[in-house]
Specification:
The complex is a heterodimer. Chain A is an all-alpha fold. Chain A has 14 helices and 4 strands. Chain A has one domain. In chain A, helix 2 (about 25-50) runs parallel beside helix 7, helix 4 (about 80-100) runs antiparallel to helix 10 and helix 7 crosses helix 8 (about 175-185). The chains are: A mainly alpha, B mainly alpha.
Chain lengths: ~300, ~280
């Protein structure tokens, strides 16, 4: 990529609240950032180790609830609750990884779906702690010393830092020995094992990092909307993440972020012209079309196109 | 007794799903939507056109078979060489599309299907049961027996079993794999639609009813072992009874958790299913 190709997006991202005054668009961008973290985290599992988790909303929700409960009930500050949420989700990821990663393919998918289902039912039924279907209102906005980060233009930078952090963690991980082990497992597990890759160790590691990142996104979401309800466990969140990763390009670093941007902006654009049902309908059709025509995703397709047209 | 009624329809769902998975290696996430389709087809014929209940069930099966065949021919056939993850994503797309299509077509309000049976329960010794539920149980049992006959006594069934055991050998013996796949998917979808038409009058009909049904079907299939027909039948009955007991003795809020817990426990402890002879995992 050229120098300008790198500098321009960075400048755009840094100055965004200055020229994008509309709070609505800023909201869309913040949500895209939160979903970007989620897509990056799912990509670590789906794209690099090749394991499809359809329970990723559970880690997102665990992060959101942990962060909300820590600040509301124990009155921790956001800066302690965020690592708390990351740790709680990471722990859940470790548990699921230890238990479920003995299984592969459809079996693994089903365990992750069931896990998310159980957690969602617990959040609805455990009234004393989660307040059931009513949810937890009044989650405090984070503050830095005397300054509240409540304003959208300020919260945007918080999310931006988080996205950057998640991206750098992914990049560092993927470029390392660990990342090569992930890819080796995806490509040929038996062969990888025979050259000494510890399968369970690496898969559990991927699950923990992935879940912890999803937990961070959950915490950011909770303190942004300042309300948490069992809706955070909705299966449609998981489906959205999968679409973002697959559409953007699984197993690439930029793919999930591109996917997150497109698929946060697209439903908002569709909302202006149609009702919510049509929007979901379009989503389903789009997913089918994507698998048919862009099976490897947007970013790899662009890269291939550029390689073909390079002088 | 209610557990058996539920279990019979779960078994129908499970048989369809297990056939599709075992034979085609497709994880059919849209299975629950065929169940919903059947319920709405029954609602349309029974509630609006006022036909007989059996005719409504037959109409639902016809809808399921037709749409299942279309789905297989247009979406799954071109992707037959692709990996299981690819078809899984396509089926998730079909699921979202069908569910929201139903939402648009019928609206989000739950509908109840009128049925011609008296509401006073039949009392047989210590148990009492609504006549409708007896009827549902009988029809479900009939359909299960019919699918066994289809698979074990007909030529199509023989070709299906052959494909299930070894696709390449079956193809060499002159079995047209493409047709068998279409037939299997249509058959499985028809069974799911039948289950929807049967349970529709017992409960309410609404667009997202298929989500839970799909989940139940997956639990049944896992309970019985993927691709295992008698396992799916027994698994269905077992899940129906277990849910009633769980709702009765633990808490009705966690009733639907029974399915999830069964999936997790069985997969972790006996991943080949409770009644499996032997099957390779993964």
């Amino acid at each position: 990529m050229t120098r300008a190709g790198r500098v321009v997006p960075v400048l755009l991202a840094l100055t965004l609240p200055l020229w994008l005054a509309s709070p609505y668009f800023l909201h869309v961008v913040i949500m895209a950032g939160i979903f970007g973290i989620l897509a990056l985290s799912l990509n670590l599992l789906l794209g690099y180790t090749g394991q499809l988790s359809l329970g990723h909303a559970a880690f997102f929700g665990i992060g959101a609830y942990t962060s909300a409960l820590l600040t509301l009930r124990l009155e921790w500050s956001f800066w302690l609750a965020l690592p708390g949420a990351v740790a709680a989700s990471g722990l859940a990821g470790w548990l699921i990884g230890r238990l479920a990663l003995k299984l592969r393919g459809a079996y693994f998918v089903l365990v992750t779906i069931s896990f998310a289902g159980v957690i969602a039912l617990v959040s609805v039924n455990w009234m004393d702690v989660t307040n059931g279907p009513l949810g937890l209102p009044g989650v405090p906005a984070p503050a830095l010393g005397p300054w509240s980060l409540r304003a959208k233009s300020v919260y945007y930078y918080l999310v931006l830092v988080a996205v950057l952090l998640a991206y750098l963690v992914c990049r560092r991980l993927v470029a390392s020995r660990i990342g090569r082990a992930f890819v080796a497992l995806r490509e040929n597990e038996a062969l990888a094992e025979s050259v000494g890759v510890d399968v369970t160790h690496y898969l559990v590691l991927a699950a923990v990092v992935s879940a912890a990142m999803a937990g961070m996104a959950g915490s950011l979401y909770a303190h942004y909307t300042r309300f948490v309800s069992p809706e955070v466990f909705l299966f449609s969140y998981t489906v959205t993440m999968v679409i973002m990763v697959v559409a953007g390009g699984k197993g690439t670093l930029a793919g999930p972020l591109v996917g997150a941007l497109i698929f946060t902006a697209l439903p908002e654009a569709l909302r202006a012209v149609t009702s919510w049902q049509w929007q979901m309908l379009a989503y389903g059709v789009l997913l089918v079309l994507l698998v048919f025509f862009l099976p490897r995703g947007i970013v790899p397709a662009l890269a291939a196109w550029r390689a073909r047209n390079a002088p | 007794m209610n557990g058996l009624v539920l279990g019979g329809t779960y078994a129908l769902l499970g048989i369809g799903l297990t056939l599709i998975f075992g034979l085609m290696n497709v994880v059919n996430f849209a299975h629950g939507e065929f169940y919903t389709l059947g319920a709405y087809a029954a609602f349309a014929t029974l509630g609006l056109a006022g036909t007989h209940f059996v005719a409504a069930v037959l109409a639902a099966i016809a809808c399921g078979v037709a749409l299942g065949a279309v789905c297989e021919l247009t979406l799954l056939r071109p992707l037959r060489a692709e990996s299981i993850d690819t078809t899984m994503l396509v089926m998730i797309g079909v699921w979202i599309t069908m569910q929201n299509g139903e939402l648009l077509l019928w609206g989000g309000v739950a509908k109840s299907i009128p049925h011609p049976f008296p509401t006073a329960p039949l009392v047989l010794g210590p148990v009492s049961i609504a006549p409708l539920r007896v009827f549902v149980l009988v029809l479900a049992a009939g359909l299960i027996v019919a699918s066994y006959l289809l698979i074990h006594k007909t030529q199509l069934g023989m070709a299906m079993r052959a494909t299930f055991q070894d696709r390449d050998t079956a193809a060499l013996m002159g079995v047209r794999i493409g047709r068998i796949h279409t037939a299997t998917f249509a058959f499985g979808s028809g069974l799911a639609a039948a289950a929807g038409a049967l349970l529709g009058p017992v409960f309410l009909v609404y667009p997202s009813m298929g989500d839970l049904a799909a989940l139940k079907a997956f639990s049944v299939v896992i309970l019985g072992g993927l691709g295992n027909l008698p396992g799916a039948t027994l698994g269905g009955l077992l899940l129906g009874v277990a849910e009633e007991l769980g709702a009765g003795y633990v808490s009705s809020g966690y009733r639907d958790a029974v399915g999830f817990v069964i999936i997790i426990l069985v997969l972790l402890l006996r991943p080949a299913g409770l009644f499996a002879k032997q099957e390779r995992i993964g």
